[in-house]
């Protein structure tokens, strides 16, 4: 299972974006976004929601959760 910070970096690079550009989308600084991508700071839920909408990706994907999770069991 990949760490979400690795997935954040891959999504950004796949879309040919800089950290500063993604930081502007979520309303923070490049330095703070850098810390999310390095796993130094945890990504707040409101930023996760914004990134899901921006990349058209599920939270499960960004968080690196396995496919087919079911709740309740």
Short characterization:
The chain is an all-alpha fold.
**Averaging pLDDT over every residue, what do you get?**
95
Q: What is the β-strand count?
A: 0
- Our count of helices gives 5
| String of helices and strands | HHHHH
Assembly type? single chain
Principal-axes shape call: globular
Task: Round the Cα radius of gyration to an integer and report it.
Answer: 12 Å
Helical coverage, percent range? 55-70%
Largest sheet: none
Instruction: Give the CA-CA distance, first to last residue.
Output: 21 Å
- Low-confidence parts: none
How much β-strand is present in the residues?
A: under 5%
Helical/strand content category = mainly alpha
Describe the structure.
With 73 residues, the protein is mainly α. The protein is 59% helix and 0% strand. The protein has 5 helices and no strands. α2 packs across α3. The radius of gyration is 12 Å and the shape is globular.
Task: Describe the SSE topology.
Layout: H1 4-14, H2 19-26, H3 30-37, H4 45-55, H5 59-63
Helix pairs in contact: 2-3
Write out key terms for the chains shown.
single chain; 73 residues; mainly alpha; 5 helices
């Amino acid at each position: 299972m990949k760490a979400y910070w690795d997935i954040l970096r891959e999504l950004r690079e796949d879309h040919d974006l800089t950290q500063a550009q993604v930081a502007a989308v979520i309303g923070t600084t490049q330095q703070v976004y850098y810390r999310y991508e390095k796993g130094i700071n945890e990504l707040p839920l409101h930023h996760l929601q914004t990134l899901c909408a921006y990349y058209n990706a599920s939270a499960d994907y960004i968080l690196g959760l396995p496919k087919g999770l079911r709740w309740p069991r």
